[in-house]
Structures are given as structure tokens and as C-alpha cells.
């Protein structure tokens, strides 16, 4: 994919960072389905690690400035988490080669989601503990895994489907050329 195409797709994902959360929150599904994660994860997968990193950094900031979600106070730990999602999805997708595009997508997403949640939890912990608030492994597990499992499932189903649809429509190059 050309640099111009990657920049254009990244801009589209940044726009989705602003547009998706209000739609999900309007029907009470924002926190459980983590809609802001979708563009960062997808951008890393489709455009590569650097573009995913940029989308993860700018997406939450733009969304916060434009529509107030996430609140500014959350950006300190939210941005590093989102950057990790975009970076590591793209990085692992670049190197994982199982012979199946679907498997490559799912494995890359799963690893990136775990790393991103670890990064978010570490930054969250530093902020909370530095401010004298309580923070524990239980709080982290509850906030980053238990409370967000519906979103993780949505991401594992939706993002590879988007990737495969773009491949089928010939909007991105096929990962594996099977005869």
C-alpha cells in the first residue's frame, strides 16, 4: 500500500475515533464494547505499526477535543494504551505468518490487546498510586479484562472481517496469494 493510501486510511480511522464512541455510548454500549479501540487496532493491522501508533496517539486526543470522550483526565493512561494497540497489532501482523490471513489477524489482535491492556494498567497504576489512590491487580483485571470482554470479542470478530473484506474488494493487497 502506498504512503498516500496509508495516510488516507489513517485519516479515515482518526475520523472513526471521533464518530464511533458517541454512537456506541448513545445506546449504552460504549464502555463494554470499547469502540475507540476499533480504529487504532484496525489501522495498525491495515496500515502498519507506525500508522497504528499515530492513530492510537491522535485518535483519543481528537475524540476528547471534539466530543469530550474520553474525558481529558483519562487521556494520560488512555493514549499509551491506544498507541500500544496500534503499534503492536501492526508489528505482530507484519511478522506472524501462519499461512492464514484470518489466523494472522486474530493472533496479532489478541497479543496487541493484552499488551495494550498491560500498558494502560501500568500507566493507570502509576497515576493512581502516585496520587495516593488505591490500585491493585484485581482492579486492573476488572477494568481491563472482565469489564471489556464483550469489546474484545467484538474486535476479534469485526476487525479481521473488515481486513478480509478489504482484501476481497481488492482495496488492499492479498496477504497470501493462493493458486
Overall description:
The protein is mainly alpha-helical. Helix content is 78%, strand content 0%. It contains eight helices and no strands. Helix 3 runs parallel beside helix 8. The longest helix is centred in the middle third of the chain and has 30 residues. The chain is globular. The mean pLDDT is 89.
Offer a few descriptive terms:
179 residues, mainly alpha, 8 helices
Radius of gyration: 16 Å
Class by alpha and beta content: mainly alpha
Overall pLDDT confidence: 89
Largest sheet: none
**What string gives the helices and strands in order?**
HHHHHHHH
Low-pLDDT ranges: none
Instruction: Please report the distance between the alpha carbons of the first and last residues.
Output: 22 Å
Strand content: under 5%
